[in-house]
Write a structure and sequence with these properties.
- The chain has 16 helices and 16 strands.
- By secondary structure, the chain is of the alpha+beta class.
- Bound molecules: adenosine-5'-diphosphate and magnesium ion.
- Adenosine-5'-diphosphate binds next to strand 1, strand 10 and strand 11.
């Protein structure tokens, strides 16, 4: 174990440096109302439509904690096997920003609601690695400054001000951009399973800050830089890779890395300096006097625990066990909860036992179905045919009505015509010939017409068997059942 870990680290060296990455994710809590007001959180509303007196920080307004958002954070805590605190506290983080009318953000610094979670990622070489989560705290989002409406003017849109976020902070446990991207994907999968964040990165409701440092093996961790607000998994990878190279070149040319906050330029795939990093002392954090400590009762926590869905890792394990599929296949099928549900529904629509149909349906999903979805650029719940048709095709092949290669023709036809599989079998004449006497007749003809080959086969040239199979299949117009053809020929040639 220790050995394989050491090997892993050596493999991850970049130009002789070890890389250290820790990620901070701002995940918008799925909730109709904001964290401390009743304003709507709807995306795309008219600017400044979802704003009340609390969000705009009118003097004398008091925040009222949205308990649903708290429940959502607890669910997330269970989703990453974290410790959920019976008592947590809201703090004020003071800073000036035009789109932050309060002059401070309400967050949780000293006593967050959750600490010590973990997420398991599957590495490309098939091994697994646990990435630890340091903490998850609840905080409010700021508004938006809009610079693009008019030249030389900035507009403020407070629709986002006060929306509930979870800040999910990992330990510095990742050693490559690949690990960072796998962690982000897995975290997203989990949040979608527990339905506490939509994870729509384009709409900005799942934003990643990447902390990156490099050091020579055996030395302490290097000084980190933080790249802010990455909004796609690809950008996370690109920004980290660029930053690793930038830091290594800087160190190699004798510079010292300073702890900076950076921006990623998506057009050039480079990072640039935004500001030097503030320390927490700069924000003069103190407990928010408007809010009591958040106390969670055992009863509340256990009720939420009872509503927890099966998590991705547990689902994956069950898929492997019940459906007899590989871990690799199960990994892909459970990555998205909708896909996992649809897969299970399809398997159970087959008339065969799940131990048999599970594998077949998985093959269709991971093969022709996903290829089609990708090409047509649609989601799995927007197929032009009922998904149960996949079960019908599986049954047709397991019944030996059609061969696998005919089934592929059927599928290609179905996505165009949306006809019933049975009808397509008839229209394209895909049914296999399984009738023994028809196959025996064809086999006899082949053997009678090729006496020399039969002679050679019987005197030891066994590779001619394939020739007889091919000829018989040809006689049957390519529609013979290969298994039966094999059996019939074996019997005839050995008599
Ligand atoms: P701060 O509160 O100053 O932002 P944190 O301790 O919260 O500092 O760390 C922020 C993030 O930086 C965490 O995700 C952590 O894993 C990561 N991190 C800490 N040290 C390093 C390092 N040397 N290199 C890379 N990432 C680091
Ligand atoms: Mg931080």
């Amino acid at each position: 174990m220790a050995d394989s870990h050491a090997k892993q680290e050596i493999q991850n060296l970049v130009n002789g440096y070890e890389v250290v990455i820790g990620l901070e994710v701002h995940a918008q809590i799925s909730s109709k109302a904001k964290l401390f007001s009743g304003s709507s959180t709807e995306f795309g509303s008219e600017p400044n439509h979802n704003v009340d007196f609390v969000d705009s920080a009118m003097p004398g307004m008091l925040p009222v904690l949205n308990q649903y958002c708290v429940d959502q954070a607890i669910k997330t805590g269970f989703g990453v096997a974290g410790t959920i605190y019976r008592r947590s506290v809201f703090d004020r983080k003071n800073y000036f920003y035009p789109d932050l009318p309060q002059g401070y953000q309400i967050t949780q610094l000293y006593h967050p609601i959750i600490t010590d979670g973990k997420i398991e990622i599957s590495l490309p070489d098939g091994s697994k690695k646990t990435i630890n989560i340091d903490r998850i705290h609840i905080e409010q989002d700021a508004g938006k400054s809009v610079h693009t409406l008019e030249q030389d003017k900035t507009y403020i849109d407070l629709n986002r001000a006060g929306i509930a976020l979870m800040e999910i902070v990992s330990k510095p446990d990742m050693r490559s951009s690949t690990e960072a991207m796998l962690y982000i994907k897995k975290l997203r999968t989990i949040l979608k399973y527990v339905k506490t964040c939509d994870c729509n990165m384009e709409q900005g409701n799942f934003r990643v800050d990447a902390n990156v440092s490099v050091h020579k093996p055996g030395e302490p961790f290097g000084t980190r830089c933080e790249i802010k607000n990455l909004n796609s998994v690809r950008f996370v990878g690109q920004a980290i890779d660029y930053e690793i190279q930038r830091q290594i070149s800087a160190i190699e040319s004798g510079e010292k890395i300073t702890q900076d906050t950076l921006l990623f330029d998506e057009a050039t795939c480079t990072t640039r300096r935004m500001r030097s990093k503030e320390d927490s002392a700069d924000y003069r954090y103190f407990p928010d006097p408007d809010l009591k400590p958040l106390i969670l009762t055992e009863d509340r926590i256990s009720k939420i625990k009872d509503t927890m869905p099966e998590l991705p890792d547990a689902k994956k394990e069950r898929f492997v066990k019940d459906y007899g599929i590989t871990e690799y296949d199960a990994d892909i099928l459970t990555e998205d909860i909708d896909t996992a549900d649809i897969y299970e529904a399809t398997v159970s629509a087959s008339k065969y036992d799940i131990a048999k149909s599970g594998k077949q349906v998985a093959n269709w999903f991971l093969g022709d179905l996903f290829a089609y979805i990708k090409k047509a650029n649609i989601s799995i719940d927007a197929l032009p045919f009922p998904i149960t048709n996949i079960a019908k095709i599986v049954d047709l092949t397991l019944d030996d009505v059609i061969s696998i290669s005919s089934a592929k023709k059927l599928f290609a036809d179905m996505v165009e015509t949306n006809q019933e599989p049975d009808e397509i079998v008839k229209r394209l004449k895909l049914a296999q010939i399984t009738d023994i006497s028809t196959i025996e007749q064809a086999a006899s003809e082949v053997l009678n017409q090729n006496p020399t080959q039969v002679e050679q086969y019987k005197s030891g040239k066994e590779q001619l068997f394939g020739f007889f199979v091919g000829m018989t299949m040809k006689k049957l117009g390519g529609a013979g059942n290969p298994g039966i053809i094999n059996e019939v020929l074996k019997k005839k040639l050995s008599s």
